[in-house]
Amino acid sequence: MNLSLRKLSTKYALHFAAFLVAVILLIITLSGYLVFQRTNEMRTELVESFSAVHTSFDLIALHNSGNYLSNRLFNPLYNIDISTLNEELTQIQSWLQPDSLLILDTHRRVVTDGSIENPSYGQKVDIPDNLIPGSPVIVPTQDGDLLYFVVGYGDEIAGYARVETSDLGHKQLSNVLATEVAKAWQEFQEGFLLIAVASLGLVVIITTIISWRLSVSLSRPLRKMADAAEHYAAGNLEHRLIEDTSDELGRLAGSLNKMANDLDKAGRLLDRAQEMAAFGYWEWRPGKTDLVLSYGAYKTFGVDYQAFEPEVQNLLKYVVPEDQERVFAILQGRFKQPVSANFNIRRADGKSRTLFIRGEPEHHQEDGIVGFIGTIQDITEQQRSNEQLQKLANYDALTGLPNRNLFYERLNHTIKQARRRQSEFALLFLDLDRFKSINDALGHDVGDELLRHVGKRLKSIVRESDTLARMGGDEFTLIIEDLNEEFSPQKVAQNIIRTLTPAFKVDHRDLFITTSIGVALYPKDATETDALIKNADTAMYLAKEQGKAVFSFFTPELDHLAHERLALESDLRQALENDEFELHYQPQVDSNTNELIAIEALLRWRKDGELQSAEHFVPVLEETGLITRLTGSILQKACYALRQLEQGGVSGLRMCINLSAVQFQQPELLSLIDEAVSESGVTPQQLEMEITESTLLERDLSQLNAAELAARGIRLAIDDFGTGYSSLTYLKQFHVDALKIDRSFIRDLTNDIEDAQITTALLGLARSLKIDSIAEGVENEEQLEMLRSWHCDLIQGFLISRPLPFDELATWVSSAHKVKSVVDSSVSV
User: Fold this and answer.
1) Helix, strand, or coil (residue 723)
2) Strand 514-522 relative to strand 551-553: parallel, antiparallel, unpaired?
3) Contact at 8 Å (CB) between 806 and 644?
4) Given this model, what pLDDT does residue 828 score?
5) Of the residues 259, 496, 748, 799, which has the fewest C-beta atoms closer than 10 A?
6) How many helical (H) and strand (E) elements, i.e. helices and strands, does the chain have?
């Protein structure tokens, strides 16, 4: 300033100084008043603008975050997945930096606060009464805001969330801003007063320059800052102030720029989060054709946010035609209450997606509804996941058929519908015959593949209107509606049996399987779900008893039979306690010499003094596993009977003992046999164990026991050969000593050419393998002569003798040894 004074001529300096002396006070007073007044107004305006901008952005961010987090937290909270919830909370804390964050269950108790310790777990937290899905509630507090929102999907509520944010940062920023402005103001006052005092001695030109410089230095930067605040409030965060000074105003401009950078970064992070969640928001104001869309909304539709004109009609071009009217109504605010809907789009890149749109009116206290806001979210993957979960919950993973859950649901629906229409329908209960043997013999992989093939065949012959389901294991059910002559239960059952008859090609094998079918009719047989299923199941068991590969209708008598079976099981348990079981013995003789070779021990039950049919009770013993409790006593009695015959002078006989599959799989079987042999004094070579052909295929333990029996010298015979799952490899591998031809082939041997051919084939097989052949069920001389001509080794049946108690057997054996022909002797017994 001294330099400036020296540059002025003395004359002008004096004149100017004199002039200034007269007018300086007025000029400074007026100028000071105007500058002070305007600067003070701008200072207040600046602080208020910053506060409004920050508050507005905070509220918008909290509101949008509530909507976004509601869907994001649904799955982990619904599944009470604390680990996943904590991971989500960690990310949320990095986004929002709240003071606290609590996840509540539907009872408003704390599930987690994001920490491992979770000290607030179980504490009940109050939430606003007006809190509903899709409408977060922000409650101002003395130190900030509390954000409440529902964690849910659609109308499904999994819980609630409370986010506590502090306005400490906002206050600090405001305080810093106010402090800096106040400081600048104070320094400005001091400088202005100093200039005012100094200007008393300056010329008018220097005073004018100083005034102009002050105006430029102070007023313009503050005005630019106010303009910048307006840009930020309008959402233009790319606007920046020029930091061309290092004074307080320059630092203030730097603070404004930093705030804009922080807000821009937060916005980009929010956009990124929305993109990751396929989430965006929209806004529409009445009277306008364009929308305000977030970056996430543009990404959801697959359009370029810089080139796309966000008009409603432009957006509707991507919506499938059938959904356009509904979406248009939402985007144009044709609602007064919050609405939501799913709709489908074909994005700009050609991909089809499913979106979820939510909208709600924006109210103003005086003007009413002033606009409409909402969110758009891509729920394609969620929908696929839900569909997959739905499929897993209702469909069998192996066959793709409805499972037990969906079957019960559809059966209940069918019953209600039939009751309303007064119509009838049929329920078929299918159980695959011998599936367990195949499954255990060839492995579960083969069994599963067989079930898949069965499911495909069954599905190919039922109507779409009917329900075919897999109940589990080898059980299937079929609901047949709209019964008619063409699609009657009888014809459907026959078609099912016929369809399953051809071989199934599984793992390079031809597998054969049949099914037994029980049929129950609504309302004839039952009107309630459980009763209908029980009756169909009862009918199915009757079908199995009739020989399998057949179907049976339910009758009231079957229900009686089912109760009888339960009573029979109870009686059998009591019979075990009372030792009511005994052995009868049936001879086996040489078909050529009539010499007595062996005796088969057969289980009998004497109830109240009367013998019960073995066909009546033995299957129940085997199904319930009670037969295993008889294994030891059967072996003991049979061995002692053989020993008694030897002591009576009859030697060289074999004792044949029937063992069921469940008995042959007993871990203690070998020790029971060893004990019986040791205590009775017979030799192992005098024993022959009879098992069905499928028993060797059941489990590894069966095969191990067979090998151990051979090692001990105990013979092994295959009973009922030709009626089950034949494996010629096992006949050789396990040293089978005899094949017993089932009585079903012998019964009609003389008048059924197929039975005759089968029998000769089996006898030829036995001869080629050099093992004994035994025909059981021989009842007349004609059968005997045919079997002799075909070189059958041993004969067993009523022609020789019926099964006898031991005392009668001893008499019969003694009598048979006194005559030339055992066959002849049997006539007199």
Assistant:
1) coil
2) parallel
3) yes
4) 29
5) 748
6) 29, 26
- Low-confidence stretches of the chain (pLDDT beneath 50): 1-17, 277, 818-829
**pLDDT tens figures, 172-215:** 766 776 777 677 767 766 776 777 677 656 655 665 565 555 55
Residue at token pair 């396929």: 278
- Residue 203's pLDDT is 53
Q: What is d(CA 785, CA 780) in angstroms, rounded to the nearest whole number?
A: 9
DSSP-assigned letter for residue 560: H
In the chain, helix, strand, coil percent, each to 5?
55, 20, 25
Residues facing residue 519 across a β-bridge: 428, 553
Predicted pLDDT of residue 810: 92
Report pLDDT digits (tens) over 529-557: 999 999 999 899 888 877 778 999 988 87
Distance CA 420, CA 407 (A): 20
Q: Where do we find the tokens 């009756």? A: 535
| CA-CA-CA-CA torsion sign (115, 121, 123, 124) | positive
Q: Which of 799, 803, 806 is nearest to 825 (CA)?
A: 799
Provide the CB-side half-sphere exposure for 683 (13 A, CA).
Answer: 8
Among 429, 425, 415, 414, CA closest to 558: 429
> What single DSSP character describes residue 305?
T
pLDDT for 7: 39
Q: What is the pLDDT of residue 173?
A: 67
Query: What is the C-alpha separation between 804 and 801, in angstroms, rounded?
Result: 8
d(CA 110, CA 720): 68
The per-residue pLDDT for 383 is 77
- Residue 246: the pLDDT is 66
Radius of gyration from C-alpha coordinates of the chain: 48
Looking at residue 279, what is its pLDDT?
64
Is 68 within 8 Å of 88 (Cβ atoms)?
no
For residues 550 and 497, the answer to whether their CB atoms sit within 8 Å is: yes
DSSP string, 201-266: GS-HHHHHHHHHHHIIIIIHHHHHHHHHHHHHHTT-TT--------SHHHHHHHHHHHHHHHHHHH
- Burial per residue of 56-67, b for 16 or more beta-carbon CB atoms within 10 angstroms, e otherwise: ebbeebbbbbbb
Which of 240, 249, 241 shows the shortest CA–CA distance to 218? 249
CA geometry: angle 593, 596, 601, nearest 5 deg: 145
- Map 309-364 to HEC letters: CCEHHHHHCCECHHHHHHHHHHHCCCCCCCEEEEEEEECCCCCEEEEEEEEEEEEE
**Could you identify the residue written with the tokens 């593949």?**
449
